[in-house]
Design goal:
The chain is an alpha/beta fold. The chain has helices at residues 4-14, 27-33, 51-60, 64-69, 78-90, 104-112, 124-138, 149-165, 179-191, 210-224, 234-241, 243-246, 262-275, 292-301, 335-347; strands at 24-25, 36-41, 71-74, 94-98, 116-119, 141-142, 170-172, 250-255, 279-287, 306-313, 323-331, 351-353. Strand 4, helix 6 (104-112) and strand 5 (116-119) form a beta-alpha-beta unit.
């Protein structure tokens, strides 16, 4: 059981190292959720996520002998960046083992903090195995991303900062390994015991899919001017799913990080646009003769939709000889506009289908 004094000690160690992130009020989210909403923007934290809190707290609690032998961690992104930064700040040598499939931007960012990066394995588990072997060979300390009491205490300082500013009814926290929610729950058990935040301390878990996360990323980017990675937007996605239960409550949403690969951002935003009806994908069957594609595009243009992408395929096995399948991606204004496009296609006698999301 994590004790409150351990979180307070972590907060003292982190003074001057981290950037305490103030809660952000959003009138837009108040209106959407019918609640008093505050965002905890850890995407604005040093290294772009909350991870610096736990990484630094773990490092400075090592003995001098442990520090002299260095530390090793496995990470696909945020933990590695945080540990590299923390190790440089604490004067400790660190090696970050990352999978070969990690985003180039995250690899480069981790290296930029002045520590060694080794690429090993195709996924996190393979990288972790390599890191563990490295620790055995060097006598170095393995710094876990979440399963460590000092790491959890460091993450718990997020909860203390929340309680400094507001007494929440509900706190929604993204969960990966569980270190962040464990720390916040421990802190709020003391500071805000009435708040709903795993067993004994966390009230419930809610799952969200890629399209719901995309919607949340898009909402934060467009309306709040905050860039969150997929996991960082999971709390907002969960709140949107639970909005009927949140009405009238004081709600804090933890935005856990903002380190997102730009190529991935494009795909996530695309998912979000589809989810809210701002992007419509439709497959239309045409006769394969001159002018037919132009007629289709003109019919769509008459609705005010903009063609974002188009693919004209005559060779599909499910298309008859003399026919063609046209895949269109359209920029739209919302669900009502999509319905108008459907009616326009029916009016002109087109056979069409809407591909399943995915």
């Amino acid at each position: 059981m994590l004790l409150p004094e351990e979180i307070r000690a972590a907060r003292d160690r982190l003074a001057g190292i981290i950037r305490p992130t103030p809660l952000i009020h959003s009138a837009t989210l108040d209106r959407i959720l019918g609640a008093q909403v505050r965002l905890k923007p850890e995407n604005l934290q040093k290294t772009g996520s909350f991870k610096i809190r736990g990484a630094y707290n773990r490092l400075v609690t090592l003995s001098d002998e442990q520090k002299s032998r260095g530390v090793v961690a496995a990470s696909a992104g945020n933990h590695g960046q945080a540990l590299a930064y923390a190790a440089t700040a604490a004067g400790v040598t660190a090696t970050i083992v990352m999978p070969t499939t990690a985003a180039i931007a995250k690899i480069d960012a981790t290296r930029s903090y002045g520590q060694s990066v080794v690429l090993e394995g195709v996924d996190y588990q393979a990288a972790r195995a390599a890191a563990t072997k490295m620790c055995d060979e060097r006598g170095a300390s393995f710094i876990d991303a979440y399963d460590d009491p000092y790491v959890i205490a460091g993450q718990g300082t997020v909860g203390m900062e929340i309680a400094d500013e507001v007494t929440p009814d509900v706190v929604i926290v993204p969960v990966g390994g569980g270190g962040l929610i464990a720390g916040i729950a421990a802190a709020l058990t003391i500071r805000a015991p009435g708040a709903e935040v795993m067993r004994g301390r966390v009230r419930r878990a809610v799952t969200v899919d890629d399209f719901e996360i995309g919607e949340a990323v898009l909402l934060m980017l467009e309306r709040l001017k905050l860039l969150a990675e997929g996991a960082g937007a999971a709390a907002l996605a969960g709140a949107l799913k639970l909005k009927d239960e949140l009405k009238g409550k004081t709600v804090v949403l933890v935005v856990s990080g903002g380190n997102i690969d730009i190529n991935l951002l494009d795909r996530i935003i695309g998912h979000g646009l589809v989810k809210v009806g701002r992007l419509f994908r439709v497959a239309v069957d045409l006769r394969d003769r001159p002018g037919e594609l132009g007629k289709l595009v003109s019919a769509i243009a008459a609705t005010g939709a903009n063609v974002r992408a188009i693919d004209h395929d005559r060779t599909r096995r499910d298309v008859a000889i003399g026919g063609a399948r046209v895949m269109l991606e359209l920029e739209t204004r919302g669900p009502a506009h999509i319905e108008a496009i459907r009616e326009q296609l029916k009016l002109h006698g087109y056979q069409f289908e809407v591909p399943a999301l995915g």
